[in-house]
Write a structure and sequence with these properties.
This protein has 264 residues and is α/β, with parallel strands linked by helices. The chain has one domain (3-262): Rossmann fold. Helices cover 38% and strands 16% of the residues. It has helices at 3-18, 34-37, 46-49, 57-63, 92-103, 119-126, 139-154, 177-183, 196-203, 208-211, 216-225, 231-234; strands at residues 22-26, 69-70, 76-78, 108-112, 130-136, 162-169, 190-193, 256-262. Strand 2 and strand 3 form a beta hairpin. Helix 4 packs across helix 5. The protein is globular, with a radius of gyration of 18 Å. The N and C termini lie close together (6 Å).
Length: 264
């Protein structure tokens, strides 16, 4: 329901406004789509990076960028395995090693996870400062978001580190947006409309924020993320009233990791 779309735009937003080094880790190990969404043809993947047989963890950090591919916008990507069978050979400790190595070299780390709460995903959550979770305006997706949030509560993950995004919100689909927002007291950080600009941007391999920054969906993404920027660069972002469902907004810090998860 849009996790890769949101991850790539979050990465672009941070890179564009801060000038800091930002990396996406595609942790959807079997069916990762980040390289496709950005129209990249990576030579190496996360699996290749983990084949380095070195006891010195600093060596992995020193060489981690060799396994990445860089997008024209300045975003770096550590891709998911090309062969889905390689996913079974990546363990939660491997994920921890990879993310910790990347955090020593990059200012922001964004982890695009699958929808399932696997041990791999939980390993990424443990290293994340913020979690972004998306739902669409249909009952199964909204229900799954509720189940997901209840599970996070049982795992003692603070709710103020979990940001909710309602994606592809349309009128006249049988569910009222206001009714949905009442089900989640912490509120939605962003309510994003269905937008053809998103499909167009993906088809040319660009985040919609770069492809069409003046589109309504782009303005709403920007409004939701503005307060995540350091104060000294926040004024560079144009203020907008497009977002009417702000929830709790937190701050990202240098060397931070962020995980995105969807509830399809």
């Amino acid at each position: 329901c849009g996790k890769t779309f949101y991850a790539t735009n979050l990465a672009y937003f941070l890179t564009h406004y801060t000038g800091k080094r930002t990396c996406i880790v595609d942790l959807d190990l079997q069916f990762g789509e980040v390289s496709t969404a950005l129209r990249l043809r990576p030579r190496f993947t996360i699996f290749d990076a983990l084949q380095r047989d070195e006891e010195d963890e600093s060596a992995l950090a020193d060489h981690i960028e060799e396994y990445m591919v860089k997008h024209d916008t300045g975003i770096y990507l550590l891709p998911a395995p090309k062969d889905p069978s390689e996913a079974d050979r990546i363990s939660p400790p491997d994920v921890t090693r990879i993310i910790e190595a990347i955090r020593t070299k990059f200012d922001y780390v964004i982890v695009d996870t699958p929808a399932a709460l696997t041990e791999i995903v939980l390993a990424a959550f443990d290293l994340s400062d913020e979690l972004f979770t998306l739902a669409t305006l249909d009952l199964p997706s909204v229900r799954n978001m509720g189940v997901f949030l209840n599970t996070l509560d049982k795992l003692k993950i603070p709710s103020d580190h979990v940001q909710l995004i309602l994606n592809k919100a349309e009128k006249d689909v049988g569910i009222d947006i206001e009714q949905i927002t009442k089900l989640f007291p912490q509120g939605f950080m962003s309510v994003l409309p269905y937008a053809r600009e998103v499909s167009k941007s993906i088809n040319v391999g660009m985040p919609v924020l770069a492809f069409n920054p003046n589109a309504d969906v782009s303005r709403r993404i920007t409004a939701g993320l503005r307060d995540y920027l350091p104060e000294d660069v926040r004024d560079r972002v144009p203020e907008t009233n497009s977002n009417n469902h702000h929830g709790i907004i937190g701050r990202l810090f240098r060397r931070s990791a962020v995980a995105t998860n969807s509830n399809a």
